[in-house]
Design a protein that fits this description.
The chain has 14 helices and 13 strands. The strands form two sheets. It has a seven-stranded parallel beta sheet with strand order 9-10-8-11-12-7-13, sandwiched between helices. The chain has a six-stranded parallel beta sheet with strand order 3-2-4-5-1-6, with helices on one face.
Length: 388
């Protein structure tokens, strides 16, 4: 079947490669068009009557794949089943499908689908992701066990062909250590560590402490930190005012953090929050308005928007969530790199977080990851405060 999709120059080779694979992993940068490439490959490899299965991590990713199918290969619509990993019954017979596409395939290591797919023999299985290797030994072992061949599409090749715009990282404060807050955090970490060990004798002290370090630092240094939250709000407000036709996505880890930002924002974030429990109809309306330019600011959780959310006109991603996971950092930053009319550059606004040692170390790790992607770094000069 011929596809309606007109491929970019850098997409032709991976599409041809994927269409011939029994178990192939396509690794391509966020925003390079993995979904359209895989759909085009499906149209090339399809035998004319068999069933196809497309699995993704979230309902939004599934909806985006369905929308892309209508544009790329609409005649396949009656033969493709689209579903989330979590929404597809584990009892489904994979062998009923001639080809299965696993989008955002790095999630397979954390679902039962990794085990199910491992034992499949007669079905072609294609894996798509920008970030296949997490650094987690068990997860990476699972990925390697699933894949026979791999195609890596270079970030430089995509950029040179105009498939992604240049991305710049704008660093905001806090710039100085907060000694009083650090002592408070250290004391609470020790208390929580001992408490966990008392309740669970099987957990090691090192594991309990590692968990406590993240929980306490995130609570006191991010979610409940007034000055850092004001930095997020004021730099977002400045970006909205200073950018022609802004399209800004602010990312947080938890709804509690989003609600704190809304409370402090003086109306800036009113009606902007979208998360996993937002009613589906309202969620889709807000996302559609944002993607199509009728809404210029969105506040959302990383579980929903950290990956696979395609809004090409997005100008800025504000990483209020922090963190240091290579997969998370690459996926979040890639949201702003999509190409769009009159868009020459995408921006990530991030925070140096010098007020606490753990958060500062995480920021240093993010800086290294951004540099590995070829992003340039700048310091924001507006609306900066010290953390307290």
């Amino acid at each position: 079947m011929e596809s309606k999709s007109k491929l970019r120059s850098y997409q032709v080779e991976p599409v041809d490669w994927l269409s011939k694979q029994k178990r192939g992993l396509l690794v391509a940068p966020a925003g390079s068009g993995k979904t359209r490439m895989a759909l085009t490959a499906l149209s090339k490899a399809w035998d004319g009557g068999s069933r196809l299965l497309w699995l993704a991590h979230t309902r939004e990713q599934v909806a985006q794949a369905e929308a892309a199918m209508d544009d790329v290969c609409p005649r396949l619509g009656r033969y493709i089943t689209f579903s989330c990993y979590a929404g597809m019954p584990n009892s489904v017979e994979i062998e009923e499908y001639s080809i299965v596409v696993c989008d955002e395939a790095h999630h397979l290591a954390r679902t039962t689908w990794g085990e199910i797919i491992q034992d499949v023999e007669g079905t072609k299985i294609w894996f798509l992701t920008a970030t296949p290797w997490s650094g987690d030994e068990d997860g990476d072992r699972t990925m390697r066990s699933l894949v026979q061949n791999q195609y890596q599409l270079s970030l430089d090749v995509v950029r040179e062909a105009g498939g992604l715009v240049e991305t710049k990282v704008i660093w905001c404060g806090p710039h100085e250590p907060n000694v009083i807050l650090q002592k408070k955090v250290d004391k609470e970490v020790e208390y929580r560590t001992e408490k966990v060990i008392r309740w669970n004798k099987r957990i090691s002290h090192a594991t309990a402490k590692q968990r406590a370090i993240w929980l306490v630092n995130h609570k006191d240094g991010v979610v409940e930190n007034y000055a850092r939250n004001k930095l997020v709000i004021e730099n977002t407000r400045f970006t909205m005012h200073a950018t022609p036709n802004p399209s800004v996505l602010v990312l947080v880890n938890h709804v509690a953090h989003a609600e704190r930002l809304i409370e402090l924002s003086g109306g800036l974030f009113d009606d902007c929050l979208v998360h996993g429990k937002t009613p589906l109809k309202l969620r889709r309306e807000k996302l559609k308005d944002f993607v199509e330019g009728r809404r210029s600011l969105l506040l959302g959780t990383v579980s929903l928007f950290g990956e696979g959310f395609d809004a090409p006109a997005m100008t800025h991603v504000v990483n209020a969530a922090g963190g240091k996971s290579p997969i998370a950092v690459v996926q979040r930053a890639g949201r702003s790199s999509r190409t769009s009319a009159n868009k020459s550059c995408g921006y990530v606004i991030d925070f140096q977080d010098k007020h606490l040692k753990t958060l500062s170390n995480h920021a240093d790790e993010r800086r290294k990851i951004y540099s590995s992607l070829g992003y340039s770094h700048y310091n924001y000069k507006h609306h900066e405060h010290q953390s307290s």
